[in-house]
Structure prediction request, 373 residues.
Amino acid sequence: MSKYDYLVVGAGLFGAVFAHEAALRGKHVKVIEKRNHIAGNIYTKEVDGIQVHQYGAHIFHTSDKQIWEYVNQFAEFNRYTNSPVANYKGHMYNLPFNMNTFSELWGVRTPAEAQAKIQEQKDAAQLSGEPKNLEEQAISLIGTDIYEKLIKGYTEKQWGQKATDLPAFIIRRLPVRYTYDNNYFNDTYQGIPIGGYTQIVEKMLDHPEIDVETGVDFFANKNQYLADFPKIIFTGMIDQYFNYQLGELEYRSLRFETEERDVDNYQGNAVINYTDAETPYTRIIEHKHFEFGKGDKGKTIITREYPANWKRGDEPYYPVNNTRNNTLYKQYAELAKQEGNVIFGGRLGQYRYYDMHQVIHAALVTVNKISNL
Ligand code: FDA
Prediction:
């Protein structure tokens, strides 16, 4: 038997919060991570004085004061506000859909004019009954112009399917605002950690009761780990843990293409979405704008994000929570209950799209539950 109380598989945010809290409660924790770095998908790395978000744009946002205070123990946050811009065939529109967007699209000036325009387009579409697919759902919420220019191409690229083949539930609601407010989130607290995200996980794991090993895959020694550790917190893919015995859960993957440009300011915003169907990427991130232009003079780093199908061996970025996959996940969750000493957590272990604040909350709940047993 090992000297450790817990083996944490995965040094992402869930694993790190769990390990940190368990160590504070006097437990001895071993963390293994298959990548050659800690921090999972929130990993950031400094290049040319710029914090590069290696696995896509990460903006911390929450309305939960406790979670905000919790994360602020590990880093100071700047005042970054997520206000992406859409590029549709060279025309720029503010997001989320708000009075700036409506004014750019139609020249309207007041909320009443914008509402009338949207209503007119909804009426002209002559949809009746429950929306049968994502296209009908979007048009019934926001009308045809915004659907055609800002939703259709982007969503089809994101999911790799036609909007008429995608289920309506993907967009139950759309962020629509009848004010001139480009803040994407409605949350009370928002920002980017000054100095990047990796330091947060580094500080969480920097405890005498925690040992971390990177470049170690759980599946290389699964049976040994199960025999050696009294309890395992597993934050990898739940279907892989069970050797896909009930079938594969589906994921969407991404390909990131990062390049350094010899200019101070490439696109003038941290995130620009490309909402037409022809551009193969969904967005370009210019990392220095997350920190208000910090970084070396005359240099900037940009990343193009290409959605991709997932197959075994690829990075599983997004769970595809449709009915088929959710049903299959429930069956895996039943198997998981029988796996007495293993707790499945995080985005991949629970097959759920978690934002960072939600994953911190879920890890805190898990550690509290276990330590109360
Ligand atoms: P995460 O995937 O980060 O960590 C799991 C770790 O386990 C990984 O490091 C993996 O390598 C490791 N692992 C898996 N299998 C293993 C094995 N067999 N052996 C050893 N190690 C193994 N959230 C937000 O709040 N604001 C935002 O703006 C964004 N933006 C965003 C963009 C993109 C492109 C993505 C994909 C996600 C976001 N998120 C986000 C979500 C955010 O990334 C997410 O909440 C956390 O990273 C989830 O942390 P986890 O620990 O659950 O998973």
User: Anything to note?
Assistant: DSSP finds twelve helices and 16 strands in the chain. Residues 9-15, 32-35, 40-42, 55-60, 217-219, 235-236, 254, 317, 346-348, 354-357, 359 surround dihydroflavine-adenine dinucleotide (CB under 6 Å). Residues 59 and 236 are 23 Å apart (CA to CA). The longest helix spans residues 144-159.
